[in-house]
Amino acid sequence: MNIQTNTNMSMNMSMDNKNIMPESDILDDENNLPSQFVAAKRITIKDYMEKPEEFRSLVNDYCIRKGNPLVISDMQEVPGWSDTTFSLNQLKTYRGAFISALDFPNNEKKDVVLGKFIERLQQENKISSDHSYKPLKESAKKVYAKDISCPTEYGGTLKEIIPDYLLPHGPDDLFSILPQRFRAENLMCYLGQDKTGTPIHRDLCGTMGHNLMTMGNPGSFAEWIIIEHEHRDKLASILRPSETERLVANLTDPPKYTKSSFMESDRAWLENAMLKNAQFKAQVIVQKPGDLVIIPSRAYHQVRNVGVSIKIAWNRITAQTLQYAFEDQIPLYQTIIRPEVYKCKAIVALTLKHWNTQLKLLKNSSTKITKFSEYHGFRQKSNRATFFLNSRILLDLFLTNIIAPELLYYGSRNVITDDADEVFTVRCDFCYGDVFHRYYHCEICNKYDLCLNCYSMGRSCEHVTEMKMHQSPKNIQTYINLYRDYVNNLNGVIGPTLGYELEADKEKHFLELLPNEASNLATTCQRLEKFRSNMKDQFNTLECQHCSVKATVSELGNQGISLASVFKRGICSKLIKKTKKFYANVFTCIECTDNCDECLDLENANESLKDYDLVYYLHPTHDPRNWGCFIDFNVQKTCELEISTPLTPTPTPTPTPTPTPTPSPKLASTSKPKDKRKRRDSNDDTDTHNKMVVEHKKRKQIMNPA
Fold first, then answer.
1. Which domains does the chain possess?
2. Model's pTM, two decimal places?
């Protein structure tokens, strides 16, 4: 399922034959498939209507734990199903007056009154109609009505026929934790017909996909081709960008198939013939009315429609899917510039906060029974064990992927604190990733924000040396306390009933690091910011602190050394002994690093950082203020910037989506008056610096005795 994003993010790229849905060789019989295909597992809900626990166990084991697709047929036999509710005429009643952006042939989107489109669709396919709308004047052939907001009536009917743990915003869906204002629209309706479909893709952020065909005219079906995540590299070797992708694809020669990001672009079509000699078997589903398809996390899939059909689709987030998102998909999204949409970091934090509150209530309950414990089925040991496992996954993500990267070890005197209402509201203007706590902001540009990851890569706006670190008004110590409190409550309430508990004090490893030992993301950015501030227009040149050899950021990138890997290291301890000054230049070259027994290792890919096939989801020029880093292409880059004379800033133009780079402006360093963002309170301990000063001085004395 594709969640609809802002229309101003659209590429509107031209297509050639390789980008157009193949219309032949559609598979229509799961029992008669070519040798390179195998039918996905299919069950009927009729066998499980009296066995709800057995059905739940099957879904958990087969789809979630083993990561396999599953078809559940005969959902129309479940009490509560209504053919009338799901009819085309009723959809016109529910949503006919809505204006929807429909996918027309040649990759063109048009805003159309949905009722007029449906009327034309019924007319062209000889489907009976109540004629409640005038038909669309132009042909509806090959037009796909996808990502339509579902009528509320559909949601009500789903609750009657789908088990609650599979429902959107149900007990096993962490989307339900997010405040309404942060939730992406997740329940979508798809009105398909002949020669329409969705290219190969994975559902966002590792979520599990669910797709129910609720209506179809005689003979209609949808062909699903599914490739599990374990076959990703083999799939990459047979999918290649077309010639018209050259503005958003940077291809190596020979191609680096296994490093390709083309499969994440939502522009790749898989033809059945491509799989003839593949070293894996693709799974096939021929979905018909009443079939519920469950797609496991990170599985690639494409859909082609035959006949007229309505499908309802939604995604669920679980602790396991969040783990996959942080491990695999979110880092990739930041590189290829794909909007995250789902606010995964906020979901982790808010889920732990909510669950922690409920564990406290359970702990203080005289009966040891609460609505929360009943909701999660704590009476059964297996459900308590599942909750414990999910808690452990979320806690590990919270500490390792969310809290630890945000810690500062050199102090935060110059970090600017946002207004009170700016919590979980900032999004990176380059990669569209969601910001959790700290980020960079340009006061000269019009509200330009950059996540720590993009800043550490070298991405920026034109005012490279003027970007300043900002932070959420919420003290990060609050999150550290939440982590500790949750571990204690989980071990005190659930742990004893299972006979095991989580390790306590895991956070101490991160909190007790000395500044020069830290290599986390915020500290890396802080070192880089300090260096840029000191070096001014020479910030792209680094000088080895041992031998004084100079190297540019681009030269290092060609050697396989990223900007982040340079500033991830503190200054060599041999050099820090000589001064108490906070070193801005922490660089030591490869040779000196190898020869020095106190230099920390320098991360080196041993090949150019461009040595892979990069295919953007959105090109960096979607916002003309963007300046790319070493690996970006067809865009101005900060690593190529050498300007000595600052200019007076000019008004920032309204961002216009375009696949071509904008002209390169010169570096401007004139700032404008500050906005209402306030500086952090000097007593705020959102970093670990103040409490480690004494220990740091002691360590220095040990390292450099008088």
1. 27-317 (2.60.120.650), 517-640 (no CATH)
2. 0.86
